From TrEMBL:
Entry protein name: RCC1-like domain-containing protein
Residue ranges, annotated region (Disordered): 437-459
Residues passing through the membrane, by range: 74-97
Residue intervals of the RCC1-like domain: 241-456
Keyword entries, A-Z: Guanine-nucleotide releasing factor, Membrane, Repeat, Transmembrane, Transmembrane helix
InterPro entries named among the record's database cross-references: Ran_GTPase-activating (IPR051553), RCC1-like_dom (IPR058923), RCC1/BLIP-II (IPR009091), Reg_chr_condens (IPR000408)
Organism: Solirubrum puertoriconensis
Coiled coil ranges: none
S-adenosyl-L-methionine as UniProt keyword: no
Matching Pfam families: RCC1 (PF00415), WD40_RLD (PF25390)
GO terms assigned for molecular function: guanyl-nucleotide exchange factor activity
Length: 459
């Protein structure tokens, strides 16, 4: 393999972060460069091994990869962080999240921008606090992670603190009471949070030590510490099944890599590559998937392991279905399939993971209420499932039972999906939206669009 070289100028500080999708142990795909300076360019295609680059100290003069597995050259003392390199350019939007009728993006400068509405329901003529264009959540605050549930949002600042806003009907914002929260409020005082996920009315977060925590609607969270949960509810005066404060999830000692949430369902990926779930999916307990005829009255328990594989790479959860990628790029789906959101070519329920489009290798995925978005390793964008609002982006409103390509571009990097709208980011960092726009979730004034449209305010 011919070497690829990129030059970065300036001191390497904590402002330099390389966010990527590592799709297998030996193949990496497009990444994104975050730093304070604007004149940063890194252009690379593939690497046959996960490279290491200096991070957090020293002066980085060049990055050079060869088949002989040479590491980066640098000046000064530097700690090393395992990173994967990909095609980089001047970037705008970086991390994108969507849910309900709301969209959020963390830009290259780590500022958080959002638009749409967190409390809107169809039928409202004029939803409150509608943001038809991107607006910052504080101009000086720096963020590192964001997630959007059906009616609430969660985000982690770069100092490790956790924040939430939106509906608090089930305690998912963790503020006490049930009043709606219009702007980000800090959850407790810990500064060790890393990743977040929002469901219909429950919230999840992973700390830097790998522990997983949940709060909000407990039937989807299922904390292991029942005694502490009861005490917390009692202290908060709560008589519902909700958890008013973060509670530990999963078995003691387990280390978690990522987590995703649906209506009443939680899916989490352990650090050992195994996949676990708890709650209910399409009114079926996770313990009854093998027998779809069993009623939803089965006790809520979990987590339970999904299969025996130890090579799961990334996950996504829709309203009542789930998706997961293996390290080899294969895509698997299960759950409700009424609108073809599983992409298997039919509309039958799948109690266990089934492979979608065998032979195709995928890079990333997103699940909406009942539509799915995914990017292949070649950078092309695909969609399937419900399409009554044009949320697939293929120019029609026809439901698709199998993946269809959206446009002909091969420069897509990441995707996110809301209730009836879709969001995608290209490798140049531009953000694109399409689908329903009744609450301004597309970031423009259009009523709706059936194909990707640039969010020009973020250019």
């Amino acid at each position: 393999m011919n070497h690829k070289q990129a030059k970065l100028f300036g001191p390497v500080t904590t402002a330099l972060k390389l966010c990527c999708l590592k799709v297998s142990a030996f193949l990496v795909w497009p990444a994104t460069l975050l730093r304070q300076a604007r004149s940063c360019f890194l252009s690379m295609q593939y690497s046959c091994f996960p490279p290491r680059v200096p991070f957090n100290a020293g002066l980085l003069s060049s990055v050079r990869l060869k088949a002989q597995r040479k590491q980066a050259s640098f000046v000064g003392m530097a700690s090393f962080l395992l990173l994967s390199l990909g095609l980089i350019g001047p970037v705008s939007g970086q991390i994108v999240a969507a849910g309900g009728t709301y969209t959020a993006v963390i830009r290259a400068d780590s500022t958080l921008w959002s638009w749409g509405n967190l409390t809107y329901d169809p039928g409202w003529e004029s939803p409150p606090d509608r943001k038809t264009g991107p607006a910052p959540q504080g101009h000086t605050v720096r963020w590192q992670s964001v997630a959007v549930g059906e009616h609430h949002a969660l985000a982690v600042r770069r100092d490790g603190t956790l924040w939430a806003w939106g509906s608090n009907a089930r305690g998912q914002v963790c503020l006490g009471g049930t009043a709606r929260v219009s702007s980000p409020v800090q959850i407790k005082s810990a500064s060790t949070w890393r990743q977040v996920a929002g469901g219909y009315s429950h919230s999840l977060a992973i700390r830097t030590d790998g522990t997983l925590w949940g709060w909000g609607y407990n039937r989807a969270v299922q904390t292991r510490d029942v005694k502490a949960a009861n005490q917390a509810r009692s202290a908060a005066g709560s008589k519902t099944a909700s958890l008013p404060a973060p509670m530990p999830l999963g078995p003691p000692g387990a280390s978690w890599r990522s987590v995703a949430a649906g209506e009443r369902y939680t899916l989490a990926l352990r650090s050992d590559g195994t996949l676990w779930a708890w709650g209910q999916i399409e009114d079926r307990s996770v313990e009854t998937w093998a027998d779809p005829q069993q009623a939803a009255s089965i006790p809520w328990r979990g987590p339970i392991q999904i299969g025996t594989s130890t090579s799961w790479q990334s996950i996504a959860v829709g309203y009542d279905y789930a998706l997961a990628l293996q390290q080899d790029g294969t895509l698997w789906a299960w759950g409700n399939n009424e609108h073809g959101q599983l992409g298997r070519g039919d509309q039958s329920y799948a109690p266990n993971p089934v492979q979608i489009s065998p032979g195709v290798r995928w890079q990333c995925l997103a699940a909406g209420r009942s539509h799915t978005l995914a990017v292949r390793r070649d950078g092309t964008l695909w969609a399937w499932g419900h399409n009554d609002e044009g949320q697939l982006g293929d120019g029609t409103t026809s439901t698709r039972l199998s993946p269809v390509q959206i446009g002909t571009d091969s420069a897509w990097r990441s995707v996110a999906a809301g209730r009836f709208h879709s969001v995608a980011v290209k490798r140049d960092g531009t953000v694109w939206t399409w689908g329903n726009n009744d609450a301004g979730q597309l970031g423009n004034s259009a009523e709706s669009t059936r194909s990707p449209q640039l969010v020009s305010a973020l250019r």
